[in-house]
Amino acid sequence: MNATEESRHHCAVVDIAESKLDPSAALEFVSDPGFGGIAMFVGRVRDLNHGRVVTGVSYDMFDALALNGFADIAARCDAEFGPKLKLYIAHAKGRLGIGDLAVVVAAGTPHRDEAFRACRQVIEAVKHTSPVWKQEHYEDGDSVWSEGCSLCGHEPEVARDAHAGHGH
Amino acid sequence: MKVEVKLFGAFRDHQPDARVALELAEGATVADLRRALEAHVAAHWPAFNPKLLAYSAFASDRAVLRETDPIPADGQMAVLPPVSGG
After folding, report:
1. Average pLDDT over residues B39-66
2. What are phi and psi of A163, to 5 degrees?
3. Which CATH superfamily is domain A5-161 in?
4. For testing the chain B interface, which of A50, A54, A65, A135 should be mutated: the one with the most B CBs within 10 Å?
5. Where are the domains of chain A?
6. A149 interaction partners in chain B (CB closer than 8 Å)
7. Domains of chain B by range and CATH?
8. What pLDDT is recorded for position A138?
9. Which of A68, A132, A152 sits opposite B57 (nearest CB)?
């Protein structure tokens, strides 16, 4: 395969007001005559979190930094599993309802093992490092920003508990 | 130098236009910006929990920056609370 890294990676932020995530497009993008394995992760909005009934979520995102981050994540994955690798990374932004797609990651490789591992590596990196913030909306009208992963390099005392309550 | 800080996530609740303008000395670092933003929020956002800023990172449009990194010459920065994508 002679394709450049850029042509083998698709990274996107999708504003839910304009479009929606498309798993079939992800499968098509990571397909290749030389690839026998495709692994895909689809993240959807669920109706319950920490015992509270969720009616929807809003994703806020720093688009420019997120897209740079997706490209970096793909490049690191490529260094480990490429060059026979295609990756698709797309994350939704805006207000989503229950069951709506929040994130789609797909990896195509010659064999299944690298496909599963590449897909897992990418979704974990996206969840833990991408500048994306989720606000949950509850049936009682309340809304709460989710606790998350701190990106702080300086590790203040309080940051030791930065993962507390964050459901990975 | 003039520094404009974009706000995301829980920070938006305190500033609907999602940006704060600060004046810092030339050659200021991310640590200087953190101290200036701490002072700004203490003065202007009575309901803000200062722990959120302690957990937060700072970034340019290109990358998350370290505390010792200089603020980019264009003064465009963002404060990133803990992330919760996916």
Report:
1. 95
2. -95, -5
3. Molybdopterin biosynthesis MoaE subunit (3.90.1170.40)
4. A65
5. 5-161
6. 82-84
7. 2-80 (3.10.20.30)
8. 97
9. A152
Q: Which residues of chain B are within 8 Å of residue A135 when distances are taken between CB atoms?
A: 9
Q: A-side interface with B, Cβ within 8 Å?
A: 43, 59-62, 64-65, 68, 91, 102-103, 123, 126-135, 145-154, 156, 158-159, 162, 166
Q: In terms of DSSP bridges, do strands B2-7 and B76-80 run parallel, antiparallel, or are they unpaired?
A: parallel
**B8–A65 CB contact, under 8 Å:** no
Q: pLDDT tens track of chain A, all 168 residues?
A: 446 777 999 999 999 999 999 999 999 999 999 999 999 999 999 999 989 999 999 999 999 999 999 999 999 999 999 999 999 999 999 999 999 999 999 999 999 999 999 999 999 999 999 999 999 999 999 999 999 999 986 555 444 444 444 455
Q: Which two tokens stand for residue B23?
A: 């004046």
Reduced to 3 states (helix: H, G, I; strand: E, B; else coil), residue A142 is coil
At CA A68, angle to CA A165 and CA A135, rounded to 5? 30
Rounded Cα–Cα distance for residues B3 and A28 (Å): 43
* Contact residues on chain B for A65, CB-CB shorter than 8 A: 59-64, 78
Kindly report the nearest CA distance between residue A87 and chain B, in angstroms.
16
Q: Do A151 and B83 touch (CB under 8 A)?
A: yes
Say if CB A58 and CB A135 are below 8 A apart: yes
pLDDT in tens, B6-43: 999 999 999 989 999 999 999 999 999 999 999 999 99
Its ipTM equals 0.94
**Tokens 């913030």, residue located:** A133
